[in-house]
Design a protein that fits this description.
It is built from 9 helices and 11 strands. The longest helix has 17 residues. With about 290 residues, it is of the alpha/beta class. Helix 7 runs antiparallel to helix 8. It comes from Bacteroides uniformis. InterPro entries: Cyt_trans-like, FAD_synthase, Riboflavin_kinase, Riboflavin_kinase_bac, Riboflavin_kinase_bac/euk, Riboflavin_kinase_dom_sf, Rossmann-like_a/b/a_fold. It catalyses: riboflavin + ATP = FMN + ADP + H(+); FMN + ATP + H(+) = FAD + diphosphate.
Length: about 290
């Protein structure tokens, strides 16, 4: 019996619950499952600017898709791909990746000619690739990447997690900062995100789990913003995390922040004593989550 290689197509930004449901349906119809996706957002090419910011970098997306037991195929979305018709694109997938079957989202259109489910039969006949339409994720809440981006951008990481099926995370490297936290009893790790295209949550203070390179997780208080109490209010946005119970150095090491909830907005305090009291309160709240 021949092996059936199936694929689905999409940006899969965030690999949220809707994406996961689509992929589960793909796996029901084939022996080998492939997720065809893109290294850059198509709108970057169409609009000529690097917006929207990404819920998941290409590397993060590859890992998440791999964890779902599908093989990711990442293609650069360029002008050539932008102007490829649905039939041309399907033929490319069949020729270069051996795709026998496509499972597409219930409302997806593909190709520069924006072919829809009404065209599936004709496209199948033209390309020899069977096309199946997946059903929509059940439930009243519509799950899509745009809605999740709005939540993260507004700081609502808890609701974003409900649609992602996991906590929103930022992967980065610990870099040298001004070392002000240690002078008030709350040393922080300054994190530089792995990609400038990554969507950073709204300025504020967050509860998070911080995972170090050895896999150990620490509950953390994370500040995103300009640090107005100790720095110029117009200073660049920084990401700083105080890891509860951690001792040692994290400089130049990878660190992942898994956001649990937003505790409060960033504010300027009257002085260091008031700032210390606020951080202590934030830490106590974080420990209860």
């Amino acid at each position: 019996m021949s092996v059936i290689k199936g694929a689905t197509i999409g940006m899969f930004d965030g690999v949220h619950l809707g994406h996961q449901y689509l992929i589960s349906q793909l796996k029901e119809h084939c022996d080998e499952a492939v997720a065809v996706t893109f290294t850059n957002h198509p709108l970057w090419v169409i609009k000529g600017e690097r917006e929207p910011r990404l819920l998941s970098t290409p590397a993060e997306k590859s890992r998440m898709l791999g964890a779902l037991s599908v093989r990711p195929v990442l293609l650069p979305f360029d002008e050539q791909l932008r102007h490829m018709t649905a039939e041309e694109f399907i033929r490319l997938l069949a020729r270069e990746h051996g795709i026998d079957l496509l499972v597409l989202g219930f409302n997806n259109s593909i190709g520069s000619d924006r072919r829809t489910s009404d065209d599936d039969s004709a496209l199948s006949n033209a390309t020899g690739v069977e096309i199946i339409r997946a059903s929509e994720l059940p439930g009243e809440v519509k799950v899509n990447s745009s809605a999740i981006r709005e939540m993260v951008a507004a700081g609502d990481v808890k609701q974003a997690a409900a649609l992602l099926g996991r906590n929103y995370a930022i992967n980065g490297t610990v870099v040298h900062g001004k070392k002000l936290g240690r002078t008030i009893g709350f040393p922080t790790a300054n994190i530089e995100a792995d990609s400038t295209d990554k969507l950073i949550p709204a300025n504020g203070v967050y509860a998070a789990d911080a995972t170090t390179t050895d896999g150990h997780a620490y509950r953390a208080v994370v500040n995103i913003g300009h640090r107005p109490t100790v720095d110029n209010p117009s200073a660049p946005v920084t990401i700083e995390a105080h890891l509860d119970g951690f001792t040692g150095s994290l400089y130049d090491q990878p660190l992942t922040l898994h956001f649990l909830d937003r505790l409060r907005g960033e504010r300027k305090f009257s002085g260091l004593d008031e700032l210390k009291a606020a951080i202590s309160s934030d830490l106590n709240r974080t420990r209860t989550l």
